[in-house]
Amino acid sequence: MNPIVILVGILFFLVYGLLNFYIGLRGWQTLFSCIPLLSSKVYWAIFLIIAFSYIVSRLSERFLSRVVYEGLTIVGAYWMAFMLYFLLIIISLDLLKYLNRWLNLISIEGKHGLGPIVGLIVCAVVAGIVVYGAWNASHPRIHHYDLSIAKSAGSVHQLHVVMVSDIHLGTIIHNDHLIKLVDQINELRPDLILFAGDVFDEDIELVKKQQVADTFLKLKAPYGAYAVLGNHEYIGGNAEEAIKYLDQAGVKVLKDSYQLVADSFYLIGRDDMSGSRFNGDKRQDLKTLMQGVNHSLPIILMDHQPSHLEEPVAQGVDLQVSGHTHSGQLFPFQFITQRLFEQDWGLLRKGDFQLIVSSGYGTWGPPVRIGNTPEIVDINIMFNP
């Protein structure tokens, strides 16, 4: 194994372990040590099982029963959200406590550090945040855009497109979530349906058992449904299997290829830029991929990650749809995605080039969203030469 990978893994476990120890220690000092008959050994055993359940489930999947694996994965996924907001609040309170030593602004000291009352308040606040985030993540909204492309599309004067990204079907996001999505899409009565990557999380076998192909087959659109791969299809090592499965489900995957739709407009699908890290095959550059494309017709591009926008701008792409960012998913991570991407959510215009980045429909890790909402992107395109 690559020594760098081993070193990164060791550092991750070290940092993750220290952060959880900090949360666990503060929890014991401020609240749980006050509970009668609860020993520190029992407390730490329960805490460590919860804190490391996601990691244990991922590393031991092949050795665990399906029920145990799914249970550990779900508990661990929710814990990641709890962990984040416990850290933010506890660190803030500890900083306030040390600042108070010099300024004497308020009294937050007590017999047990911050005191059991403050501990209860912190637990209630964090639980409230996560419960709201779970509710928010399960209530997607429809975000509508009206766009214009200054080209003729033959007999097609108007195109109604529904785009969805980052469903993350797998252990946590199940077929019932997809059924709801398909019903919402069909209610919009689109001409064309686009899936901009990360349709699956990692476990294709679990998806097959849920029979999601039957759900995809219920999609209705005159020009069909198309998809591109995202990074998670590659992370799970199931990229080619995902292509075959979607094809059986009536969704055509465009992997570094294009399709002339109704002799009126081009639909181009790029392979995800992370693919080369997993299969060693670098995706085609956009200029090579677009050889043979008639630039007088409208060009719509699907690329999972909204990166290297200079390429579609230079190659005359009219509209690009992307996902990947989740708009941060959990506050305050949107401040990171805003730094990483020129546009991490919404509409961007650069001359004749237009980009729409979706916050995604599903979630990765914790099925929780704070500071953003899941969405279905509803696009109405007018062709005005």
From TrEMBL:
<feature type="domain" description="Calcineurin-like phosphoesterase">
    <location>
        <begin position="160"/>
        <end position="327"/>
    </location>
</feature>
<keyword id="KW-1133">Transmembrane helix</keyword>
<dbReference type="Pfam" id="PF00149">
    <property type="entry name" value="Metallophos"/>
</dbReference>
<dbReference type="InterPro" id="IPR004843">
    <property type="entry name" value="Calcineurin-like_PHP"/>
</dbReference>
<keyword id="KW-0472">Membrane</keyword>
<feature type="transmembrane region" description="Helical">
    <location>
        <begin position="6"/>
        <end position="25"/>
    </location>
</feature>
<keyword id="KW-0378">Hydrolase</keyword>
<protein>
    <submittedName>
        <fullName>Putative phosphohydrolase</fullName>
    </submittedName>
</protein>
<feature type="transmembrane region" description="Helical">
    <location>
        <begin position="117"/>
        <end position="135"/>
    </location>
</feature>
<dbReference type="InterPro" id="IPR051158">
    <property type="entry name" value="Metallophosphoesterase_sf"/>
</dbReference>
<dbReference type="GO" id="GO:0016787">
    <property type="term" value="F:hydrolase activity"/>
</dbReference>
<feature type="transmembrane region" description="Helical">
    <location>
        <begin position="76"/>
        <end position="96"/>
    </location>
</feature>
<dbReference type="InterPro" id="IPR029052">
    <property type="entry name" value="Metallo-depent_PP-like"/>
</dbReference>
<feature type="transmembrane region" description="Helical">
    <location>
        <begin position="37"/>
        <end position="56"/>
    </location>
</feature>
<keyword id="KW-0812">Transmembrane</keyword>
